[in-house]
UniProtKB/TrEMBL annotation:
The chain crosses the membrane at residues 20-39, 108-131, 143-162, 174-194, 206-237. Its EC number is 2.7.8.8. Residues 264-301 are annotated as: Disordered. It is found in: Endomembrane system. This is CDP-diacylglycerol--serine O-phosphatidyltransferase. Belongs to the CDP-alcohol phosphatidyltransferase class-I family. It comes from the Bacteria. It holds the Pfam family CDP-OH_P_transf. The keyword Lipid biosynthesis applies.
Amino acid sequence: MTSSARPVHPTTRTRGPVGLHILPSSMTVLAICAGLTSIKYALDGQVHVAMALIAAAAILDGLDGRVARILDAESRMGAEIDSLADAVDFGVAPAIVIYVSLLSTQPAGWIVVLLYAVCVVLRLARFNALLDDATLPAYTREFFVGMPAPAGAITLMGLLAAKLQFGDGWWTSQWFTCAWVVGTSMLLVSRIPMRKMHAVSVPPHLAAVLLAVLALVAAAAFLFPYVLVLVLIVAYLCTIPFSVRSQRWVAAHPEAWEHAPRERRAARREIRRSQPGRRPLGIRRPSGQSMARLRLRKPGR
């Protein structure tokens, strides 16, 4: 028998993919290293490096799950490592960085950062519990319950971004810093629905606009990184009312969850038009003109 006709052992075929299966967990471990190293740089007074490392941990956290799904490498151990990494990267590390940089001389500083770290852990525990709850409607997969932990860490870093960009001011005062940390902590453990980014669809005719915006964001990340952080935080917070409105509509019309986003938007428009007492679009009463001047009679006359 020649070598070309020799049967291939099953382990030979899977040797390559098996090596790639550790890639998601490796990215998670790198995220843990980035989060812990940010504490070291914060203690050394290099706050900008600490911020960059926490941002890198957030990027790695967003990629490891997608890489695991692409490689079909999802596992229970990987999920547990990811949850523990989130607690370190977005709970412990940002809390210590903020405390060392802004609140170390404040009596209430340790209390508020301790509250933030605990809220991150509680938020992650609730997230894991909801994953195992098979009684939840299908549309809940499109929404987070409360602010995600990476978004909470970036929101907390907005305090440092404001200080590095504008210097000291009311935004670095004790009352504002503590209020910001407490407010972020409350958003983490709240029941406010927040839309998942991968569930947001972009119409095909807006794809070019989106790519142009991404190019501007990439340029701003090098030229005005701290302003970009602040803009992203404000933009994310402004999406909360829209997420609440979208979640309430889907909860009232669960049958529309299986429809495409374009069909869902069309259904919303039809429902709004069919509401009683709603004035049709494009028909408005001219300003400053009464019913008599418009020659309209009241009913019964």
